[in-house]
Amino acid sequence: MTFGFSRTRAAIAALLVGLLVGSAAVGDLREVSAGDLKPTKSQRQATVILTKVVDKFHYRRVPLDDAMSEKILKRYLESLDPNRSFLSQKDVDGFAAYRHKLDDALRAGDLDPAFKIFQVFRQRVDERTAYALQLLKGKFDFTVNERYEFDREKSDWVRDRAALDDLWRKRVKNDALSLRLAGKSDDEIRDTLRKRYEGVARRTRQFTGEDVFQTFANAYTVSIEPHTGYMSPRTSENFDISMRLSLEGIGAVLRSENENTVVQRTVPGGPAALSGQVHAGDTIVGVGQGDTGEVQDVVGWRLQDVVDQIRGPKGSTVRLQVVPKGMPGPPREVVLERNAINLEDQAAKSSIVEGRDMGGMRIGVIRIPGFYRDFRGQADGDKEFRSTTRDVKKLLAELKRKGVDGVVIDLRHNGGGSLSEATELTGLFIGKGPVVQIKDTSGRVEVEEDAEAREVYSGPLAVLVDRDSASASEIFAGAIQDYRRGIILGEPTFGKGTVQTLIDLNRFVDGDEDYGRLRLTMAQFFRVSGGSTQHRGVVPDIVFPTASSADDHGERAFDNALPWASIAPAKFRPVGQNGVSGLVEQHQERTAHDPGFVYLHERETELEAVRQQRTVSLLESERRKEYDQRKKRQLDARNAFRKTRGLAPLTQAQVDAEEEPDPDEEDAEGVSRILVEESARILGDYVRTNQSVRAAQLY
Questions:
Q1: Is 38 a residue whose pLDDT tops 90?
Q2: Does 6 qualify as catalytic in the annotation?
Q3: Are strands 260-266 and 406-410 parallel, antiparallel or unpaired?
Q4: Smaller CB count within 10 Å for the chain: N or C?
Q5: Do residues 440 and 522 make contact, with C-beta atoms less than 8 angstroms apart?
Q6: Class of residue 44 by CB neighbours under 10 A (exposed 0-12, middle 13-18, buried 19+)
Q7: Quick one: pLDDT band at residue 696, thresholds 50, 70, 90?
Q8: Beta-sheet strands, E only, within 441-516
């Protein structure tokens, strides 16, 4: 298998695939002959409409000129061949004639260049897979000391066909060695890889003209910025189904990384999250239906095709072959029952942190997985409709009754949600006032304000965020920081400070043709202090040591994301709080020797080493040694941490067992509580410091 990462491909895929849901339309699986692969009149018309809409309404005004044409060509080739393993430099040189012509072609609705490039790519896929199948007839020598470059995103295109042959010889050998290390027999390896390579060729031949057009259109839109994308009529239909059934499925968001399908995040309350066996960063390499259905090897599959395999009716079973994040070795099987996502498990929940190391302090914690609002219930007149703000208001009242000394709002892994909820939730802590500013394409600025004059909670406050806290989470955290209402803790947030809208292209043309839809970036969020949440995200007042690799995450990972910007501040009055310098020193002294943070640092260092790796040994003895050493390091670090928690060490056999450790045992290990408990300690330090200051002032 391969482990590289294509940001362009990931950006395009992220626009098209969201929650894995229940039954949905599956695309036409018939192969398309090369002669029938031509642009249609409606696609040409859609191209003209698309360019005009982008030019008139997109927030970022980027001219469609020769410079943009170069970017479009580059991204189109990267989206077709993200790992640079099918096309050669000779092929790319042959496309140079289009370098400064794609801008004119787009304006004129001329899609011939895009289809001609795809025809060459399709031919190269046939050639490469035929060569790979031929290699499977021979034997591999795993005693030769050589390495395979599996992540070629940033590499040069190989020179010619001879260089591609050598690259594919190593690729097939690596694929065979990976299966061999997973315990597969020689016959099983050949059968699996034969199906894999035949599948790559077959799925490429199944590309319709609609698929080619959508890929090319997105090469254009993503060249402007990552969150703008075109959805063809078929993709639009699947998107609508996804939205209608968004609370059913396995509850996971997937992305494409080169030829792998990777879990971007799991949804609280969904089967994937509740299983405890599927996590962000895991790679799905196989999918089987029911309890006994054959597991399909999905390495090299298009993301939409993998999603179609995982989708299914509520109550049915799907089996996933999953390679855990940071452990590129044999996969484990995870059995999930597709089900409705339990709203109760997505709702905000509270707990209290207390103990000997808290100095008598009792700190309330409110975990908010997302900014939700039951719009249908509200529209139907349900006075008790659920929302984040309503639930948090009740939790705050309960915590106050229990006499907590402060409250931590935990927004880790919170990808956002309702803007109105972010605004109203902020109002629980600041009272009436502006929360966020929104600047549109015309330059007009609107201010979102909370209308409630009274604070619900005015006590000591901290907000815990991480690199996956995005959008509405950043609006809330940014407002709390600007008002100096609480202390922001954790990692720099995702940095998504843009606003998208769906535009139906059919509205611009009379007739019954379906031209698809455009997801368009049309505005940008700005904090009340004037700075944007875009790109930089919200930088915590106290940055945790876990933030070491957060710089290459979120918006910062896209080379063409909108940059940070600023506008005039809104009219607001900061509440005020004392500085955090003393708190930083206490935090650093404590975490330098804290077993939990030592463990998190060691785990992050191991994962970062895997992320930075671009080559792998094809020497079997070396590969086994690397894998065994990595497993041993991870087990040693985990057991060292377990010892500090008073837990018995685990054996490698226990960790490798198919069944997961007992949930109560996992809770006792308490890895998920490390950051929350430190946040509570910091807020406790803040409370004690302010109590001392007030006592001194009174004296």
A1: yes
A2: no
A3: unpaired
A4: C
A5: yes
A6: middle
A7: very low
A8: 445-450, 461-465, 487-490, 498-504
Cα–Cα distance between 347 and 367 in angstroms, integer? 9
State residue 442 phi and psi, 5-degree precision.
-80, -5
CB atoms within 10 A of CB 608: 14
Question: What does the angle CA 651 – CA 655 – CA 656 come to, to the nearest 5 degrees?
Answer: 110
Decide: 406 and 683 in contact? Cβ < 8 Å.
yes
Under a CB-based contact definition with an 8 Å cutoff, are residues 316 and 338 in contact?
A: yes
Asked if pLDDT for residue 699 goes beyond 60, the answer is: no
Q: Is 585 exposed, middle or buried (0-12, 13-18, 19+ CB in 10 A)?
A: exposed
Which residues does residue 336 pair with via DSSP β-bridges, in sequence order?
A: 318
Among 103, 151, 496, 617, which one carries the catalytic annotation?
A: 496
For residues 57, 61, 64, 68, the Cα torsion angle rounded to the nearest 10 degrees is -130
Q: Which residue has the tokens 């409709």?
A: 385
Length of the chain: 699
Q: Say which amino acid occupies 285.
A: V
Pairing of strands 433-440, 445-450: antiparallel
For the ranges 100-114, 321-335, 633-647, the one whose mean pLDDT is highest: 100-114
pTM for this model (two decimals): 0.85
Domains defined along the chain, listed by start: 25-227 (no CATH), 245-339 (2.30.42.10), 347-578 (3.90.226.10)
Known active-site residue 566: no
Q: Which of 482, 541, 594, 685 is catalytic?
A: 482
* CA distance linking residue 257 with residue 261, whole number of Å: 6
Q: Which one is catalytic: 85, 88, 471, 617?
A: 471
Q: pLDDT digits over 488-541, tens only?
A: 999 999 999 999 998 999 999 888 888 999 999 999 999 999 999 999 999 999
Question: Is 482 one of the annotated active-site residues of the chain?
Answer: yes
Segments in 402-471 forming alpha helices (H): 419-430
